[in-house]
Every structure is written in C-alpha cells, then in structure tokens.
Structure prediction request, 414 residues.
Amino acid sequence: MSTIKDSNLSSKGFEQFSWASRQMQVLADIKSEFESTKPLEGIKLGACMHVTKETANLMLTIKAAGADVALCASNPLSTDDSIAAFLADSGVEVHAVHGVSNDDFYKYLNNVLDTKPDITMDDGADLVTLLHKERMDIPIMGSIEETTTGIVRLRAMEKENKLRFPVVSVNDSDTKHLFDNRFGTGQSSLDGVIRATDILIAGLRVGVIGFGDCGKGVAERADGMGAQVYVVEIDSVRALEAQMQGYSVVSAETLSKVADLIITVTGNKHAISKDLFSSMKDGIILANAGHFDIEIDLEYLSKNSESVETVRENVQSYKFKGKEIFVIGEGRLVNLVAAKGHPASVMDMSFANQALAAKWIHDNRNKLKNKVYRLPKELDQEIAHKKLLLMGGELQALSEEQKEYLTSWEFGTS
Prediction:
C-alpha cells in the first residue's frame, strides 16, 4: 500500500513522466532490452531517490526488468506529488509526500525496508545507514549509490570494515559525475536561485564554496551569466584550477564580506559556519546545492536572529544583528526545492548507470565482496557512445596501424 498525497494527480504525473522520457533515450533503450530479457525477475528493489519525473523513468525501467519496486523520497522537499501518484498507479509502491515531517520521512524509509528488498538504491545513503544501524535483520544482495555525499559515507564504512554488503558507486562513473554533477548541477542550481528570487545574476558577486564537479558547473554557469565569481576551496589543486580559469579564489571569511549570493556545493557540514554571518552584507542570499541541509549553519542563524519569516515561496528572511540574510529553500537542495532538478537529458546517463548497476549486482552477486565498486569502464563507454550518437555526434575509429602503434613498445622516433 502506497503513501501519497492524492491519487487524482496521476494524470499530471504521467504528462511529466512522458515529457522526460522523450529526453531519456539511453534509458529507454535499456528498458526495451530489460522488457525482453527480464534480468531482475523475482528481485525486490527498494529505492530512496528524489521523486521526480526522471526518477519515474528509472523506476519503471527497473520494473520492466521484472523487479518489484518500492520507493521513498531522499529529500522531504524534492517530492513531486503528481509523480508519486503516477508511479503508485503504475505498480510501484511509493511512500513519498512533499513537505513531510522528519518523523514521517524516516517512517517512509522504513516502509521501503519493510518490503525486504534484495537490492537497494540510494541518493545519500539513508537506506544503507538504516540497514547498518537499525535494520540489520534484512539480508542485502547489494546497493547502488547515486551521489558524492553518499559515497563519502560508504567509503568511511568500508574503511572501518563496517560495510556488510557490496555497493556500486554510480557517482564514480564518468558518464555520471562529469555530466550530471557538472552540467546538471550547474544549470539547475542557478535555475533554482532565479526561480526563488527573480534576481539578475549579471553583475553580482557570486561565491561558490566547493570546486568539485558540481561546484565547477555552478561557477561556469554563474560566470556565463555575467557574475563575478569567487571560489572557496580546501584542495590546492582545485583552487589553482579555479584561479587559472579566471575566478577569484578566496577564504570563506573574505567571501562573506563581499558576496551578494553564496552557493555551497561541498557535501560537508557548516561550509557557511556561524562565524561568517556577522561579516555578511545586508541582503545577501544563501543557497545550498550540496546534498543535505547542513552546509549552512541554520540552527545558529535561527537561534540568534531577531525574527525568521518566509517572505516569498522558498525564501526565508533572517533578521540578524541589524541586517537581513535570505536563505533559499530552508537550506535544502536549491535545484530541487526551488526548481525541477537536473534536466532529463543529463539524468538519462546517470539513471542508465543505475539500471545497469542493478543488473550488474544481480549477475555478479556470488563473487562481490563487501566493498564499494565502480561499474566496468566498458559500460561507461557504451552509455557515452549512445548519448553521443543521440546528440548528433560522431566517434572516430582508429585504423589498424594506429591500434598497433598504441599497443607496441617497438615504435620510436624515426
């Protein structure tokens, strides 16, 4: 039995699902293959993902493979209630309602685990964490993780020999992190900021805290829209790369004094710490494009503000020491709270990896160890090649002479 807001929203959800499916042809090819081969026949899969139109395409691809599927949301504010209704109507067990309480959020996680899944699929490792803390009774064939934040948690578990089943890091696939993280996060994060605030990016001083693949995408898009971009980074190589791309690389303290807009993209706690609020400009806008709502120390800001109020949809105003600080979407993922998440065309590759990872775990279940794996490189190449052709590109082939040259040590300067 599903837990959704309103089953009458199903037709609207179908419209959104159908629109996304037009831009997810790599996943559609996999779904077509799965429908005929049924590689997951008899398997139960439990997923904790953002309940969006793109996720709907992934869930129905897994279902087409023969699996029973149960889904809950990986973020209380990212659920599209119409998609939840459509999926429930399509035979997926769904436990997701937009804006649920923290207690209900964890209740829905446990509802998915109550189905006793063989394989789990996570976006942030919440299911895996429960399976290691409270639900040790459930035997798991393997799990799949979507995002950088989740992988950080999983690698820590592996390092401490606490991981009790194999996990595939989809985020490590090149066709995920080089495209979804960079181009998807870059566009969708700025989209969320603009939808929430209606501000003009051109001419603003925009700070990006974290210059990984996601941060690079945000910086590039802000720069392309005419912003003066500042980058805060703890890794010297990434910081140097940002500097050579023409961005101003500064400390968080320096950034807090000059920025009009700051977007955190670290996956870490308190990237905007309590020490920074006092030096911020009146009217500054803060947004988070990392995974969890801990990147901005909102607990401190809330406790020390004279007032906190919602001034427009998805924008909270904090009156703090004589100034006003705006926070978008309660500090949760700005691209999903205030916008519609990544474009379907880039999620096509990420979710192609997810679908193939489920099959890979099943096919290799008897030889996998309790560690974090990356999908084979040939699957990455296959996904990229399909996407390239769909986008009108061509791939150059090596001649036999060139192949021989690249595989021999005997050729030198002539």
Notes: The chain has a mean pLDDT of 95.
